[in-house]
Amino acid sequence: MATRELNPEFLAEAQDILEAIGNVLRQFEQYARAGQFKADLVNQLFRSYHSLKGLSAMLGYTRLSAYTHRLEDVLDRVRLGRIPVSPRLVDLLFDSLETLQRLLQETAGATGVIDLDKALEAVDRFVESAQRQASPAEADPLDRLDLDAPTRRSLTEYEEHRLREAVRQGLRIYSVYFRLPFADFDRVLREANAVLNQHGELISTLPEVGTDPDQIGFRLLWASPASPDAVRDLLPAAPTRWDLLYAPEGRPPVEAEAEPPEVEAEPVFLPDLSRSVRVDLQALDAVLNVVGEIAVLRSRQESLVRDLQGRFPEMAAPLMSLLQLTQEMATRLGEAQRQVLELRLVPIGTIYGRLERMVRRLARQAGKQVQTVFLGGDTRLDKVLIEHMMDPLVHILRNAVDHGIEGPDERRARGKPETGTVRIEAAQVGQRIALRVADDGRGIQLERVRRRAIQMGLLDEQAEVTVQDVLRLIFEPGFSSAEQVGEVSGRGVGLDIVKQTVERLNGTVTVHTEAGQGTTFEVLLPITLALVPAVIVRVGSERFAVPLALVQEIVEVRPERLRQVEGQELLQYHDGTVPLIRLARVFQLTDAQDGGGFAIVSRAGRQGFALHVDAVERMQEIVIRPISARLQDLRGISGAAEVGEDRPVLVLDPVGLTARVFPRRT
Fold first, then answer.
1. Are residues 386 and 496 in the same domain?
2. Can you say whether residue 168 is alpha, beta or left, with left for phi > 0 and alpha for psi between -120 and 50 degrees?
3. End-to-end alpha-carbon separation of the chain, Å?
4. 220 lies in the same domain as 336
5. Is 358 helix (H, G, I), strand (E, B) or coil?
6. Angstrom distance (rounded) from CA 197 to CA 561
7. Number of domains in the chain
C-alpha cells in the first residue's frame, strides 16, 4: 500500500479522539445493557465520530473517513430513535473501535490492511437488522402536546424525537419563558440549562421576539417528572412565565430511572501511534533554565582552567585537553538550548481562524463587505508571543474594518471593488518576525490627525512635523477623534495599547499610509522571548544587560557633545539632542567613572534618549528570568539573566527607565 507523508499532529489528535470514544463507551455500556438511553453520552459519541470523520477527510485519509462516516450515521439513527439502544449496539461500537485503530495504523504506514468493504457490510447488516426491530408505527405522541404550529415547525428532527420519548416515558413537558437583559443573558441561561438538565432533560432552546431592544427572550422546552409547584423553585432566575404543555393522564409521571451504580470503568488503552507529546510551557522554561545554569557553570569552569594554565605551565597538556572538553560542552549546551527553544515555536496560522471570524463579525456589524487574506501561516513564533499579540492584532483589525475600509457606496464612487480587503501576513526577517496588517481603505487623513493632536495639546501648532511624526501621534495614550466618526475616528483608540504591548515584547510597530489606497501596520518581534540577544554593559563594577531590540545606536560620549539645558544633561545626537540618563545616578553607583564612556540610544514613543554606561563589553544571548516580587514594581528593570559571572545581572528596560526618570514627559 502506498503511504502518504506522516502527519504527527493528526496522529496525536486522532489518538486522543479514539481514547475518548473508548472511555465514553465504557460509561454508555452501563446504561445500554440496562436498556436506558443517555442522550448526553450518545451525543458525545456522535460528536467524536463526526470530528474524526472531518479531520481524516480533510487530510485525505479516505478509508478512515468512509468508515467513520458510517459509524456517525449509526449514532445519528440512535439519536433519532430509529435504532434502539441495545447490547448489540454496544458490541458493534466496541468492535468498530478496533477497526478504527487499525485504519489509523494504516495512516502511519502499518502493514496488514483490513478488508474495509467487509467492515462496512457488517455495519450495514446491523443497521438493517436493528431498524426491523424498532418499535412499530403508532399515533404520533407529539399530537398530545399543546404546541402551536410555528413552534412545531421550528423543532429539529432530534428535538421531535426527544419530545416523543419524554411522552412515552410519562414525563411532564413544560414551556419555560425568559426575558433577560443583554448584559448577562448568557450567564443566566447557562445556569438555567444546568439546573434543568439536572432535574430532567432540556430538549430545545428557542429564541423569542420581543419589543424591548435591551432584552432578549428564550423559550425552553423541558421534560421532567417535577411537579408544577416545584418548577419555579428549581430555577436560578425567575422565568417570565411557564406553561404545562403535557401531563400524563390517569397515572403519575414516572420518576427518573435509577441509574446503574457508578462503576470505576477500566479505561480502554490503545497502542499510541503518535510520537508527539504535549508539554506545558512552564516545563520547557524549567528545562531552559537548567540548561542556562549549566552553561554558566561551564563558563566558570573555563575561566578556572585558563587561570590554572597560567599558574601551572608544567600541566599545559592535560589542562589544554580539559579546556577543549569544556569548549565542546559549550557547543553541546548551545544545541540543547536551541532544541528547547524550537519546542516553544508554533505556526502563527493557528490564530488566523479566530482573526477571520472577528473580521467577518465586525464587517457585518458595520454593514461592509470585507474579505480577509492570510499569508505566511507556517511562520513559526513563540507561543507566548502569539498569545500576547492577540489583543494588539484585534485593535489593529478593528480600526481597519471600522475606520479604514469604506462602505460599498463610497468604494464604488472611488472606483474600487465593493468588497474591501484586509491582508494579514507573517514572515521571518533575519532573527525577527514581521507581522503586517494592511487594508485597501481610505488611508489615514494626516491633516485631520494633526489638527486633533493640536486640540489635545500633543502638538504645537507652529511645529514642523514629518509624515512619520504625525503617524506616531495615533499611538499616544488618549488620542481620539471620536467626533469625526466614520473618518479617522478610532485610528488612535486602543493603538496606545498596541504600542505598549509590542514594546513590552521587545518589538517595534510602525505604520504606513497612502490616501485613498490604504494603511499598513508592521510589527517586528523577536522569534522568542526565551532567548534574547543583549548588549552587556558595565557601570562601575556593576554589569547590566540591555535587549538589542531596544537599542537604536551606541555612540561614544565626548565632552564636546554634552550640554546642560535647564538642569537637564543633553547629548548631541546627529542633528539634534537627546536627554542623557546616567545609570550611575539612577542606581546610586559610586564607583562609576566621571567622564567618557558610551551612550545606548533608544526611544520611548516620539522621545529619544540615551543611557550612559562606562563600557560596552560584548553581545550575548541571554535567558531572561523573572525577578523577586519586591523588585517587580521597580520601573526600568525587566528581569535578570546569567551571563557567566559570579552573580546574575539585571536586564534593563530602557522605556521603563525613561518613564521613571521623566514621569511627566513620558
1. yes
2. alpha
3. 67
4. no
5. helix
6. 77
7. 5
* Domain interval for residue 289: 282-343
pLDDT at position 486, please? Answer: 41
The pLDDT confidence band at residue 5, using thresholds 50, 70 and 90, is low
Same domain, yes or no: 74 and 162: no
In angstroms, the CA 196 to CA 69 distance is 32
Residues 321, 185 share a domain: no
Q: Which of 487, 612, 516 is nearest to 559 (CA)?
A: 612
Residue 276 located in a structural domain: no
Reported as a single tens digit per residue, the pLDDT across 338-388 is: 888 888 888 888 788 778 877 877 887 888 888 889 999 889 988 888 888
Phi and psi at residue 257, to the nearest 5°:
-60, 140
Mean pLDDT rounded to a whole number for the chain: 79
Q: Which pLDDT score is estimated for 524?
A: 87
Burial 367-402 (b: 16+ CB within 10 A, else e): ebebebebebeebbbbbbbbebbeebbbbbbbbbbb
Same domain, 213 and 297: no
Tell me, yes or no, whether 169 and 71 share the same domain.
Answer: no
Q: What is the dihedral of CA 192, 32, 28, 21, to 10 degrees?
A: -130
Maximum Cα–Cα distance across the chain: 109
Q: What nine digits make up the cell of 231? A: 418548577
| Three-state SS annotation for 483-517 | HHCCCCCCCCCCHHHHHHHHHHCCCEEEEEEECCC
**Is residue 331 assigned to a domain?**
yes
Q: Please check whether residue 209 lies inside any domain of the structure.
A: yes
**Per the domain annotation, does 584 fall within a domain?**
yes
DSSP state letters, 387-445: HHTHHHHHHHHHHIIIIISPPHHHHHHTT--SSEEEEEEEEEETTEEEEEEEE-SS---
pLDDT digits (tens, 9 = 90+) for 205-235: 888 776 777 788 888 888 888 888 777 777 7
Please say if the pLDDT value at position 421 is more than 90. yes
Predicted confidence band at 1 (pLDDT cuts at 50, 70, 90)?
Answer: very low
On whether both 13 and 102 belong to a single domain, the answer is: yes
Contact predicate 292/623, CB 8 Å: yes
CATH code of residue 626: 2.40.50.180
Give per-residue pLDDT as tens, 554-598.
888 888 888 888 778 888 888 788 888 888 888 888 877 777 889
pTM of this prediction? 0.55
